[in-house]
Amino acid sequence: MDVQESLSLAVTNLTSPPVLAFVLGLVAVVLRTDLRLPDAVYQATSIYLLLAIGIKGGVALRESSAGEVALPILVTVLLGVAIPIAAFALLRWWTPLGRIDRGAMAAHYGSTSLVTFTAALVFLEASAIAFEGYVATLLTILEVPGIVVGLLLAQGARGQRFGESLREVVFGRSVLLLVGGLVIGFLTGTVGYARVEPFFGGIFIGVLTLFLLDLGMLTGRQLAAVRKAGPGLVAFALVFPVLAGSAGVIGGSVAGMSVGGAMVLGVLCASASYIAAPAAVRLALPEATPSVTLVSSLGITFPFNLIVGIPLYLLVAEAVGAWLA
Q1: Spacing of C-alpha 16 from chain mean position
Q2: Confidence bin at 52 (pLDDT 50/70/90)
Q3: pLDDT per residue over 194-210, tens digit each?
Q4: Taking CA atoms, which of 24, 48, 66, 176 is between 20 and 30 Å from 4?
Q5: Which CATH architecture has domain 3-28+36-324?
Q6: Where are the domains of the chain?
Q7: pLDDT for the residue numbered 248
Q8: H/E segment holding residue 231
């Protein structure tokens, strides 16, 4: 892919309805409008996205052989352990955060962002770039170990609180819907999916657009706090996703994934959780500072990945793929 094609894909991403809806949400907050979506909309759209991705991934997983997915799954687990450890170490050097807050941050950055992942899939489909259908399985696998490692690094394994937090992750809404969707899709296959495709496929981008509008407003309300985050935290929130994303791309490429698949694994590794991780951290580390993790993951890293990171990780995947060929 040459420079002109790369720029064209980047522009396509920036002008896609979901990204523009996210920007509209930011603008609505900056202009102090009265635009506000009911909480029920956020709950309903997040449930829809989780279940839709799980079902579609389950259908693709049924069509994949065990040998095809074994190595990518192993690489994903290793990345899920290594990324929070790296985040914890870099935060010690770059920020004045204490051990508890560094562990909370590591849990967020070790886990994944469903919306960033979804935007990456929409970007690849719009660009006609193929990727492995089992990437939803990798999303589910990567959701848990990063949170657990981050909590352990924060010395969160303190009796009942850690146990409750682990249960919140494993049996929480995010993992339950993703795993449940995978099972449904795997059991029903392409024939069963065809019956629900008009709902879980046909209106998918429209629901994502509505979800990102709401998320844009939520992010906009954190913009003022970005200035107070400190240069070290801002640098981490911008640089670490590129490092982790590049590691994910390399891992996926070495595991034999396509350029599109390696790019998606890179996006997963580069993203930061703001659904599953906050709930787990709130239980296990009540003394952590939630504003720090929210500003970093949602206020800085999420828009960076959404606007710049997704096309960037594709370029990295193409470069790594050409080098390994």
Answers
A1: 18
A2: confident
A3: 999 999 888 888 888 88
A4: 24
A5: Up-down Bundle (1.20)
A6: 3-28+36-324
A7: 96
A8: helix 231-254
